[in-house]
Amino acid sequence: MEHTIKAVVLAAGKGTRLRTEGVDLPKVLRQADGRPLLGYVLEELSFLDREDVVLVVGYDREKVVAAFPDYPHAVQEPQQGTGHAVQCARQALEGFAGSVLVCYGDMPLMRRETYESLLETHRREGNDCTLLSAVSDEELPYGRIVRDGEGRFARIVEDKDCTPEEKAIRELNVGVYVFEAGPLWQALDQLRPNNAQGEYYLTDAPAYILAKGGRVGACPTCTAEEMLGVNTVEQLAQVEQIVRRRQGRG
């Protein structure tokens, strides 16, 4: 793959809800079917050179870096949201002017083909930002992708803020993005922690880019299965079951 694409993998979380007796690991090092969650993600990103994949680490970061020593890393300390996490990778990407894929170390079911389709859509449409989305009939607590009358991306509405009409939208924001580097840094510079958590949300960046006249698109090629992240012991067990099924052992 050409060096016009770099990836930022968010891997700083503690995984408080995953804490179980005798297990003291960062979230991305928790194992599903005998393998760290982050290992699955990095395998699906193997179409990129390792030097082009930046791990944003935080909690117990020495363990994450020791487990994956061949990847550059950036430190997020303290952890102040997804927008802040990407901002922490800025120095590691200094001088880079291409496309930045932002994804998560706790989403081990995402397939290489899905990442590549997102990148291809981004390139084909000439976007400054492209969101990965999933169409699902399940009632899932994800933000909704609102499109205008011509089918173009308009905004993201968080699940808790949806009107009944917006709640009925089936296209969901997965949280995985591709940005052009310049518009990304400009947008992150404008983020403000105007929310109950006092955090900097990456979900605010597409709206800023759009408001400034940039091109923002959404690529609905993700499946509901792929978008499953691991935050609880139950979700970890669910992921393990899907991994086994994919390998013909479920």
TrEMBL record:
Stretch forming the signal peptide: none
Gene Ontology terms, MF aspect: transferase activity
Pfam families: NTP_transf_3 (PF12804)
The organism of origin for this protein: Flavonifractor hominis
Swiss-Prot/TrEMBL catalytic activity: N-acetyl-alpha-D-glucosamine 1-phosphate + UTP + H(+) = UDP-N-acetyl-alpha-D-glucosamine + diphosphate; alpha-D-glucosamine 1-phosphate + acetyl-CoA = N-acetyl-alpha-D-glucosamine 1-phosphate + CoA + H(+)
Domain of life: Bacteria
Name this protein carries in UniProt: NTP transferase domain-containing protein
CDD domains, sorted: GT2_GlmU_N_bac
Domain MobA-like NTP transferase: 7-137
InterPro entries: GlmU-like (IPR050065), MobA-like_NTP_Trfase (IPR025877), Nucleotide-diphossugar_trans (IPR029044)
Keywords of the record: Acyltransferase, Nucleotidyltransferase, Transferase
Primary role: Catalyzes the last two sequential reactions in the de novo biosynthetic pathway for UDP-N-acetylglucosamine (UDP-GlcNAc). The C-terminal domain catalyzes the transfer of acetyl group from acetyl coenzyme A to glucosamine-1-phosphate (GlcN-1-P) to produce N-acetylglucosamine-1-phosphate (GlcNAc-1-P), which is converted into UDP-GlcNAc by the transfer of uridine 5-monophosphate (from uridine 5-triphosphate), a reaction catalyzed by the N-terminal domain.
Coiled coil (residue ranges): none
Family: In the N-terminal section; belongs to the N-acetylglucosamine-1-phosphate uridyltransferase family.
SUPFAM superfamilies: Nucleotide-diphospho-sugar transferases (SSF53448)
